[in-house]
Each structure stands twice: as C-alpha cells, then as structure tokens.
C-alpha cells in the first residue's frame, strides 16, 4: 500500500527549491513536499506537529540558511525526541570536509552536495527513497 | 698574816717544801696569807693542787694554776712577764679579776675544760690584754688542763703559755715589706712608684692604720700628698691629708724621724682597729733632695702596740724601701727622658740629611748642567762669544757645589756618619801634587809659590780625599788673603808627626780672632781679602778632618804680616792602625775636584770679572709656533728650571709652562697637552696632587705624566709610579736623557692612543647596535652610535637601561639576568621587543637578532655584558606584510571561487532544465527557469565586477594623486544608482564637498558602494534619508555618509570592512566586497574609514582624504 509521504524541505533559495521538486517528481514516490524557507518556518512546522499535523517521513535541509542557522536546525532535528527518528538528508552547496563531518556527527543520514549538472541533481530522488525505505 | 692552825701536821715543813726553790714566786707564795683566800692554808691543800703548784714553780715555761670556785691564781716566775703590771698583785687573786679584760675569751675555755674534764688548746690566740696600762695586741698559745682534786673532781686549771706576739707581728710586718718590694720594682715613673708603695702599705692596716706620702719635687716648695691609705683616703679630703698638719719640713730638715701625738681635733683613720691611732710617726725619705725630690711618709701608729724597737725598726725598714723605690723610679725616668731626647736629635739629623740634598741639588743642576751643555755646544760650533759668561757661571756653580759638599761633609762628621777610608800614602808626593794645582793661580796672582815636601820615613795612613780637602782649603785661604808676597807649602817629619805648614804673607788674623778661627761660619770681621766671599766653613772643616786623623791644626798669625797654618798628624797612628787597604796605590789629586778650588780662587784675581753676572741663563726669545711633534706642559715653581726646560724642549716640542700645580691643572684642561712634566714640590697643588686631579678628570685622564724630582731613591720613584705617573726622572738629569725619555713616553702614548682610536672607530661605525652593560643595575658603560639611534636616545653612557628604555619587557630582563648569573651567552633570533623609539609614548614594533655575551675578569668573575643586536624589524615587517597579502589572496581566491560557484551552478542547472522541458513545460514554467538563469548570470556579473574592482585596489605602489572634486564624483555615483534611488523613494542630502588629493577614477566607486549600502539596508517601508557632508580635519577632509537604515551592532563596526563579510546575508544582495573596496580606496590615498551604528538606528560611515596642499 502506497502511503503518501510527507517530505519537509528547509531551503531559502527558490531556485534550489525548484530543483529539489524536480528531483522528487522524477521519482515514483507519492509525496507531498512542504517547504520552510528558514529556521523560523522550520520550527513552526515542528510545532504544528503537536497540533496533529502529519510527521514528515524525511527531512531535506540546506546548511546555508539565513543567519547561519543551518547547523542549529540540524541539531534541533536530531535531538528532539519527536523528530529524532526522521532521517535527515543535508542538501548543501558546500563541499567542505568540516561541513560533512559536522553533518555526519550530528547524525545526518546523507550529505548531498548540490551539483551543477542537472542530471546529477536528479540523483537526489533515489537517495531520498532509499533513506525512507531504510527507516521504515 | 693570819696564824695558821697548827694541827700537829708537818705544815711548816710542808709549806716550806712546797714553795722551795720556786723562785720569786715561790717566796711570795710562801709569804702569802692563803687563809684570805678560798684556798685556805696550804697545809690543807689537796695533793693534786700541791703537785700542780710544785710543777709550775719548778718550770721555766710560763705557767699558772687556778684553783677553786673562784679560780684563785697561782703562777710562776716565767709568767710574771705575761702579767706585766699585774704582778705581783695577781697572785692569789681570782682569775676573773686578774684577767677581767679578756675574761670573756678565757673563762669559757676554763669552765669548759673543768666541766668536760678535757683540756683546751689555742694557738696564737689574739688577746687584747691590758697589763701595761693600755689595751695591748697580744697573741698567745696556751692550754688549759683540768686538775682533779683528791676525789677526782675537776677543781682547778693548769695552764702553760707561750707568747707568740712577736712572731705574729713580725710575720705581718715582713709581709708588708714583701708587698712594698713587689709593688715598686716595676715602677717606671715616680708617680707609679708612689702609687705602688701606697698600695703596699695599705695591706697592713694593723701596723699602719693610715699612711700619707708627701713628695716635694725639687723646684717646688710645697710638699704634695701623692698617696694615702686608710679609710676615705681621698687626697682631696683636706682634713688629715693636709701637709700643714704635720711637721714635714722639720723632718726633712733634720732628716730624723719623729713621733708626735695626733693633733687635737684631727680625725684620722682607724685602720684595722676600733680606735684611731693617737700617735703618728714621720719618716724622712731622701731628705737631701739630691735626686730632685724629697719625701716624707706619715704613718699612724698602732694604738695597741708600744712604739718599741721592733715597731720602730719596721717603720725604718719601710722608709728605706720607699726610698729605694722612689730612687729607682726617678733614675728610670731620667734615663727615659735622655733616651727620648737622643732619639729626637737623631731624628732631626736624619730629616736634615734627607732634605738637604733636595734643597741644594736643584740649583746645582740648573747651573752646572746647562752650562756644561752650552760650553760643549760652544766648543763644537767654535763660537766663543758666550764663553766668558759661561765660565763665570760655571765657576759659581762649582763653588756652590763645593760649599754644599763641604757642609754635608761637616754635618756628617758631626753626626758621626763620616766614614773614613784610610790608605797608606806617600804624603809628601801627594801633597806636592796637590799644591801644584795652585801653581798657575799663584802665578796669576803674582805671588811667589814655594812647595817643599820632604819625603817622610814611611807611608802615612790618611784618607786621601780628606787630605786633599785639607790641603786645598788651606791653599785656597792663603791665596785669598795674600795680596802680595809669597805662599809656602811645607811637609816634614817632626818628632813622630807629619807636619804640613802653609805659610803666607797675607793680611794676617787679629789675635782676638784666633781662638774662633776654626769655628764654623766664623769669619774674621773686616778682613781685607781679595773678596768678601767665603762662608767661613773651610777652616772648620779642616779642623774636623784633621781631628779624624787624630791630628791637630794650629795657627799663628800677625796682622798685616801673614799667617801660618800648621797641621800635625801623629805617625804612630799609621803604625798601629790596620788599614783597610794593604795596597799602596799612589795618590793623585782628583783633578776635576781640585781644579774647582783653583777655579774659585782664580775668580778672585783682579783679571777676572769682579762683578758676578746675575741671572746666569738668558731666556731666548720664544720660537714662533712651529710644527711640533707634541705639546708638553711643564709645572715647576722654580723660574730657572722652567726656563731651562722650556729652552731644552722647545726645539722639538710646543711647550706650555706653569708655575704651580693649580695653574698646571687649568692649563692641562684648556690645552690638553700630549705630555705633562711636573716637579713634585710646588705651592698650591703639589706634583702628586696635580697627578691625582688630572687622572680624575675625564678629559685629561689619559695624558702621560712624568715626575721631575730631586728626591732620589727607589722609594721615591716607586711612589711616583704607584701614584700613576708614567715616568720618574731624578734631578740632576742630563738634557739628552730627558729628551730621550720624553720622546719615548710620547711615542708610547701615541701608539696606544692610535690603537685605541682604531678600535673606537670600528665600534662606532659598526652597522649593528653594540652596547656594554655593567652590573648591578645594567648601566650603560659603552654604546655605539648605532645603538643610540636604534633606541632613539642620546648620551646614554652612564645611565641605567631601566631609565633609557622604561617598560622594557620582562623577557629581556630575564635574558640579561641570566647572562649575568650564569656567565653564558644568550642568543635570540627574530626576538620581538617593542619599545618606544620615537618618543611618542607608544611602543613601536621591533624585531632583533640578539647576542648577549658576558664579559669576564681575569678571575672569571663577571663584570658586565656586551650586547650586539641586529635590527631586523624592516625585514620582519615586510615578510609579515607579504604573508598577510598572500593569506588575503588565498582567502580571496577561495571565497571568490566558492561564491562564484553558486550562481554558476544555478545557471547551469536551469539551462539544462530549460533544454529538457523545452516544448513540454508551460510558458510559466519556462519563464521561471529563464528568470533563474538570468538571476544567476546577473549575480556572477556582479561578483566578477567587484572582484575586478577589488583587484585593482590591491596595488602597493603609492598612487599618483591629483585634485579631485568630491562633488563631481558623488554625482557620478548618484547617476548610476538613479534607479534604486527612485525605487526606494530615497532622499539624498548633500553638503558642501571639497576638493581632495586622490585618483578621480576610484572615488566615484567609493561613493557608489557607500550609497548602495545605505539604500540596501534601509528600514522596510521607510524611505531612506541619506546625508553626505564634509568637515576639515587638520590637513584632511572628513566626509560622512549617514543613513536612517536598519543599522547594526557597533561591535561589528570593524568586521564589516573585512573581505566577504556580510551581516545580513542573502536578504539583501551584496557581494560582501563593497566596504572592503571602500577601505582599500580610502587607505590607498592615506585616509581612514570607519563606521558608527546602532541596531535599528541607522549607520554613519566616515572617511578621511587628504586635502589640497
């Protein structure tokens, strides 16, 4: 039975949002994509869960958020008991080992470097599917 | 006499036999009426009593028996003496009555003996008996034995006595005599002797309850109490010390001792007794006063002793001892005074000898030396114009020398220091030769001169030099005082004497003068000789010299007729004395010396100048300053010496003269000579003082110093050198020697200075900072000019490093201290040592390569350190600058590429999307993609432009500036931003803007960036209000761009000017380079840029640019 997946994307660059959307659409996952543009909106999403909103099945987030809050948000996701179990995939333009390490340490399931090639970007889709499958 | 009861016993017989052969006491006892006593009739006496009585009556030793309750006294003949005046009444009396004055001592013994039935024994017990009318000091040895009655009960006492009084007293008095001897043997002055004697007398307050010693020194009239013993023996206590109390004068006069009663009302000490003496004995000591003093001792007499023979003898012995003590002390004193006087005299003589050489030698040097030189010169050059003058001078000099020598000789003879050297001599031949020296002079004087020396039978032992003096002196006199006629010299043997006679037909000597002729310095008054010259010492010397040969000199003379001097030497002397020399080398006159006499004599002849030239040496005109090989400073208080030395030295040197030490010091400081020559004795400041002052003064310290002194001897020379002189030259000196030594010293000094200068040059010119620090406070001992430049201080030598470089960091101190403590060098490379080198109060950055090296003394102790520092600040700064630029460029490259990647990625991705979706996607979709592409491209464009702009500002060359109108530049910027300005409805307010020195191609960019920021960061919904204004500040202009935007926290004010630093990321587009570029532009032209802001309250950016000159 295919349930509709809930995917939360935290990304402030609209162009990148579109690209993620494209990547997800290219998979055959039935999904609903919600977008938070910054830390505040992401928090609002988390809070709304308490009010009954459905839990995301996977989180996609950029580290490069306004006011440098990317890592903080990641930490928040990974320490909150409600969200801990949700796999997080970091989608970042940075290839710095430091960022990768941080993300790994904080428990990100995957670190996806935003490529300049469209085809490569599409590889995000299967990665998301895999991670959802893993956690199920 | 009571009748005895005849009881039919043989009492009469008994009585007789009991007392028979008992001496006087036996008779007295027989006659005594015993019934009056408790004993009763002797017939009834117990047998033991009778036996006891029998025993005592037959004994030669003093004995008594006491019997019965009341101890009736019976005694024998020998005991009578002990009783003294109590005999004979003491017979049959109770003992308590007989000896009532000593009963308190006697009775307990008697009673004890009887009670215990045990005898007593006392040896030399002191008993104050009153048996001769006065309390008498006695000593007895006695025993009490209890006598039992016939029933065995002790009823009586039997006693045997021995009088010990004399023994005791004698022992005591002997002790006193011993004391006297002991106390006075070592006395070296009369005062000591008196004190010692009194002390001794004080040891016997029994026999001498008090004693007073009066001394009368010869010139004084009053005797003085010089010592007293007895209680309160304070000589100032007038009462009993007062000589007037006692008949001292009488005793001295009569030279007999006297015993008198103590005058009424006079308190005298009691000595050992309980009562004061009532009699006093006065004993004379050296009454004649021949030894310069006379003395009397007044002694109080023991009130408990009769002044009998023994006591009298004792006192006489005491007096005798006192006398000898005083006498020997006096003699000692005299001896000592004599010795002291002799020593002083000897001292005076030594001093005299020591000084005399100095006083005389200087003028002698001045005359003889120079003259001989001149004469030599004159001879060599053949020039004779000065010859006469020179001769005169020479003559005088020699005369003086002769005089000095004669005086010295004389003094030495007198002091017994003249040493004679006797040699066996052919006296005739020698005398003839000596006489011949005067031949020509005699001829010149137009006198007949005859010499008749007959050979003597033997060689004569004479001191040849002395004989020469004798002969020549006599001849000289003869010549002097003989104006016409003849002089005859004869030597002959006469009755065991060698006789020398010098006879003349001269002016003669008045009779009255004859006895005084040989006295020193005696000159016959008014003698009409050839000259008045003459010190009168010659004859006295002759006299002494002859005396040394055990000879005599006599003179006979008649006024205006002539004189005859006769010297007689005993030949026997030559035979008996063993001469030092056995060889008999022929004697010859010492010609130079002999000639002196002649020269002098010749001077008196009419042909020579009668007036004696004054001021022998003419000082030549000073030479014009010529090229000298050195400058010499002379210090001497003698004008002639100065002239002489000046002339001597100015041939080759430049000479400055001064006449005392103080002048010399000033001249030295003013003229800085190459050499100082100084006399030792000078007024105001002597040679040693001058040397000390010169050495203490930094400018004159190194000038070589030479002493010129008359004080000869190793000691003087050593003293001079120890004081720091470079050389010590003794007068008289030869001119050649002086010049040689002067040159030598100058040369040495020059060499040293040259070497020192070279070293100094190296030190000064080294291109590294060198300094020497000395403990304990690290004071600068030396510092080269490079060092002083480096630290930006002058004249640092002598100051402490803490004062010159305050605030020097701790690790420098540590390093310095470490070097000093461990004695090991310290090396540091690229050591960061900030300090204030330009005096602006702030420390500037400095880096050094440093080496500290300890300086050690020969004993390895550390006396300081030398620091060599290479200032590498410039290199370090450049390197750091380079590093910084590199870092920035790296950072720049990294961030640039990173930032460029984003838009590039976007462009890439969306163009691909577009391609993929072309024809498939909706118009809207495609539109969106194109938009994204456009945005990406635009972004890249921005970045690249700014990067280029930034790159252009990263140029290190100083830009060429020109006057630029800020107004025009602002307008350019406003044009570019016109769209945004309108969009935002911004209001730009512009004040008066000046002309600055900059590059007009870059200033518009500056304004553009600043305004762009102001527009970008405006508050949402509020139109931006921007003010641009300028105020002058020194030689610059300060321009401000103020907005009413969102502002930022002031703590980021510096941060925002950094590369790629953005505060409000991505809400507002911006490359992060804008402000960095502004900073670069402003700083290129020598200005500063800074920001002031408050979050929510707008921002003000200010910058300065140089105005037009």
Summarize the structure.
Chain A has 136 residues and is an alpha/beta fold.
SSE arrangement:
The complex is a heterodimer of chains A (136) and B (1109).
Chain A: E1 5-10, H1 14-25, E2 31-36, H2 39-50, E3 58-61, H3 70-79, E4 88-92, H4 97-105, E5 110-113, H5 118-122, H6 124-135
Parallel strand pairs in A: 1-2, 1-3, 3-4, 4-5
Helix pairs in contact in A: 1-6
Chain B: H1 11-19, H2 23-31, H3 47-57, E1 63-67, E2 72-75, H4 80-83, H5 95-98, H6 103-116, E3 120-129, E4 136-148, E5 154-163, H7 165-184, H8 190-201, E6 211-217, E7 224-229, H9 238-241, H10 248-254, E8 258-261, E9 279-285, E10 293-300, H11 309-381, H12 387-414, E11 422-425, H13 427-436, H14 439-444, E12 448-453, E13 460-463, H15 464-481, E14 486-494, E15 497-504, H16 538-548, E16 552-558, E17 562-570, H17 571-576, H18 591-603, E18 631-635, H19 639-649, E19 654-658, H20 661-671, E20 675-679, H21 687-696, E21 705-709, H22 714-722, E22 727-730, H23 735-765, E23 769-774, E24 779-783, H24 785-791, H25 801-804, H26 810-822, E25 826-832, E26 847-856, E27 862-871, H27 873-917, H28 923-953, E28 962-965, H29 966-976, H30 978-984, E29 987-990, E30 995-998, H31 1003-1016, E31 1025-1033, E32 1036-1042, H32 1074-1084, E33 1089-1093, E34 1099-1106
Parallel strand pairs in B: 12-14, 18-19, 18-20, 20-21, 21-22, 29-31
Antiparallel strand pairs in B: 1-2, 1-5, 3-4, 4-5, 6-7, 6-10, 8-9, 9-10, 11-13, 14-15, 15-17, 16-17, 23-24, 23-27, 25-26, 26-27, 28-30, 31-32, 32-34, 33-34
Helix pairs in contact in B: 1-2, 7-8, 7-11, 8-11, 11-12, 12-16, 12-18, 15-16, 15-18, 20-21, 27-28, 28-32, 29-31, 31-32
């Amino acid at each position: 039975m295919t349930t509709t997946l809930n995917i939360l994307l935290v990304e402030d660059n609209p162009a990148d949002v579109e690209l993620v959307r494209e990547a997800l659409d290219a998979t055959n996952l039935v999904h609903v994509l919600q977008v938070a543009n910054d830390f505040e909106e992401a928090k609002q999403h988390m809070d709304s869960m308490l009010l009954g909103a459905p839990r995301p099945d996977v989180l996609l987030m950029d580290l490069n958020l306004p006011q440098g809050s990317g890592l903080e948000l990641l930490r928040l996701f990974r320490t909150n008991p409600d969200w801990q179990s949700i796999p997080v995939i970091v989608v970042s333009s940075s290839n710095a080992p430091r960022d990768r390490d941080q993300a790994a340490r904080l428990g990100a399931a995957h670190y996806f470097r935003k490529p300049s090639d469209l085809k490569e970007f599409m590889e995000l889709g299967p990665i998301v599917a895999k991670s959802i499958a893993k956690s199920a | 006499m009571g009748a005895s009861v005849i009881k039919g016993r043989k009492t009469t017989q008994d009585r007789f036999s009991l007392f028979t052969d008992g001496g006087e006491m036996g008779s007295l006892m027989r006659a005594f009426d015993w019934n009056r006593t408790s004993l009763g009739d002797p017939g009834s006496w117990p047998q033991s009593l009778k036996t006891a009585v029998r025993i005592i009556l037959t004994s030669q030793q003093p004995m008594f028996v006491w019997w019965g309750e009341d101890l009736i006294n019976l005694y024998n003949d020998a005991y009578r003496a002990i009783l003294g005046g109590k005999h004979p009444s003491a017979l049959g009396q109770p003992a308590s009555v007989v000896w009532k004055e000593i009963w308190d001592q006697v009775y307990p013994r008697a009673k004890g003996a009887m009670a215990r039935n045990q005898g007593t024994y006392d040896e030399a017990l002191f008993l104050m008996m009153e048996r001769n009318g006065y309390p008498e000091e006695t000593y007895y040895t006695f025993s009490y034995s209890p006598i039992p009655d016939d029933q065995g009960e002790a009823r009586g006492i039997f006693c045997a006595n021995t009088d010990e009084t004399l023994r005791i007293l004698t022992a005591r008095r002997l002790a006193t005599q011993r004391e006297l001897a002991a106390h006075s043997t070592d006395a070296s002055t009369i005062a000591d002797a008196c004190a010692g004697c009194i002390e001794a007398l004080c040891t016997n307050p029994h026999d001498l309850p008090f004693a007073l010693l009066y001394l009368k020194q010869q010139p004084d009239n009053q005797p003085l109490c010089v010592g007293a013993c007895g209680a309160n023996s304070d000589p100032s206590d007038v009462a009993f010390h007062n000589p007037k109390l006692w008949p001292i004068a009488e005793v001295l006069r009569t030279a007999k001792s006297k015993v008198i009663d103590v005058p009424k009302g006079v308190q005298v000490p009691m000595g050992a007794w309980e009562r004061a003496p009532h009699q006093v004995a006065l004993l004379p000591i050296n009454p004649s006063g021949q030894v310069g003093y006379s003395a009397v001792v007044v002694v109080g007499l023991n009130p408990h002793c009769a002044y009998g023979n023994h006591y009298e003898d004792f006192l006489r012995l005491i007096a005798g001892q006192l006398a000898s003590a005083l006498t020997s002390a006096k003699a000692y004193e005299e001896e000592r005074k004599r010795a002291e006087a002799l020593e002083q005299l000897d001292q005076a003589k030594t001093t005299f000898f020591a000084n005399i050489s100095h006083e005389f030698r200087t003028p002698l040097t001045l005359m003889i030396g120079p003259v001989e030189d001149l004469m030599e010169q004159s001879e060599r050059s053949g020039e004779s114009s000065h010859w006469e003058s020179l001769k005169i001078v020479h003559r005088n000099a020699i005369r003086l020398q002769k005089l000095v020598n004669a005086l010295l000789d004389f003094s030495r003879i007198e002091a017994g220091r003249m040493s004679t050297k006797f040699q066996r001599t052919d006296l005739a031949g020698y005398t003839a030769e000596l006489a011949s020296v005067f031949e020509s002079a005699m001829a010149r004087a137009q006198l007949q001169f005859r010499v008749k020396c007959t050979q003597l039978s033997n060689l004569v032992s004479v001191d040849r030099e002395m004989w020469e003096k004798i002969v020549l002196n006599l001849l000289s006199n003869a010549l002097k005082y003989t104006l016409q006629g003849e002089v005859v010299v004869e030597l002959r043997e006469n009755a065991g004497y060698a006789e020398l006679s010098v006879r003349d037909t001269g002016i003669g000597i008045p009779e009255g003068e004859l006895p005084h002729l040989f006295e020193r310095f005696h000159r016959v008054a008014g003698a009409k000789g050839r000259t008045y010259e003459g010190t009168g010492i010659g004859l006295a010397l002759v006299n002494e010299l002859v005396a040394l040969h055990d000879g005599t000199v006599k003179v006979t003379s008649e006024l205006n007729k002539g004189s005859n001097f006769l010297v007689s030497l005993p030949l026997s002397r030559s035979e008996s004395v063993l001469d030092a020399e056995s060889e008999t080398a022929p004697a010859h006159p010492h010609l130079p010396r002999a000639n002196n006499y002649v020269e002098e004599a010749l001077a008196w002849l009419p042909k020579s100048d009668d007036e004696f030239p004054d001021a022998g040496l003419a000082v030549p005109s000073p030479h014009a300053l010529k090229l000298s090989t050195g400058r010499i400073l002379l210090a001497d208080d003698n004008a002639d010496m100065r002239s002489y030395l000046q002339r001597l030295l100015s041939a080759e040197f430049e000479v400055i003269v001064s006449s005392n030490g103080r002048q010399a010091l000033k001249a030295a400081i003013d003229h800085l000579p190459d050499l100082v020559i100084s006399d030792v004795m000078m007024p105001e400041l002597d040679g040693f003082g001058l040397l000390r002052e010169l050495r203490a003064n930094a400018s004159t310290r190194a000038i070589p110093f030479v002493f010129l002194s008359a004080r000869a001897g190793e000691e003087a020379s050593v003293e001079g050198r120890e004081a720091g002189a470079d050389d010590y030259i003794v007068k008289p000196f030869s001119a050649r020697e002086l010049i040689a030594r002067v040159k030598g010293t100058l040369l040495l000094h020059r060499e040293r200075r040259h070497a020192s200068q070279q070293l100094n040059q190296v030190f000064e010119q080294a291109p590294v900072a060198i300094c020497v620090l000395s403990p304990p406070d690290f004071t600068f001992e030396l510092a080269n000019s490079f060092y002083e430049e480096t630290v930006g201080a002058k004249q640092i030598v002598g100051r402490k490093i803490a004062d010159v470089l305050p605030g020097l960091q701790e690790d420098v101190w540590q390093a310095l201290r470490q070097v000093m403590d461990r004695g090991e060098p310290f090396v540091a490379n690229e050591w960061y040592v900030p300090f204030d080198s330009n005096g602006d109060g702030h420390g500037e950055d400095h880096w050094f390569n440093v080496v500290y090296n300890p300086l050690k003394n020969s004993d390895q102790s550390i006396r300081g350190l030398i620091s060599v520092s290479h200032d590498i600040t410039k290199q370090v700064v450049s390197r750091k600058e380079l590093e910084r630029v590199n870092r920035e460029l790296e950072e720049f490259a990294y961030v640039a590429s990173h930032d460029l990647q984003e838009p590039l990625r976007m462009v890439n991705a969306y163009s691909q999307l577009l391609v993929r979706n072309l024809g498939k996607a909706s118009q809207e979709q495609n539109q969106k993609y194109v938009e994204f592409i456009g945005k990406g491209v635009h972004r890249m464009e921005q970045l690249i432009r700014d990067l280029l702009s930034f790159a252009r500002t990263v140029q290190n060359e100083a830009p060429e500036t020109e006057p630029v109108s800020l107004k025009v530049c602002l307008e350019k910027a406003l044009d570019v931003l016109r769209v945004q300005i309108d969009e935002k409805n911004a209001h730009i307010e512009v004040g008066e803007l000046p002309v600055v020195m900059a590059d007009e191609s870059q200033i518009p960019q500056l304004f553009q960036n600043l305004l762009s920021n102001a527009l970008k960061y405006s508050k949402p919904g509020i139109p931006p209000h921007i003010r641009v204004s300028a105020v002058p500040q020194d030689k610059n202009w300060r321009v401000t761009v103020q907005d009413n935007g969102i502002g930022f926290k002031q703590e980021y004010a510096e941060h925002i000017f950094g590369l790629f630093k953005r505060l409000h990321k991505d809400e507002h587009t911006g490359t992060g380079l804008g402000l960095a570029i502004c900073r670069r532009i402003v700083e290129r032209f020598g200005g500063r840029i800074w920001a002031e802001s408050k979050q929510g309250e707008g921002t003000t950016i200010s910058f300065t640019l140089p105005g037009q000159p």
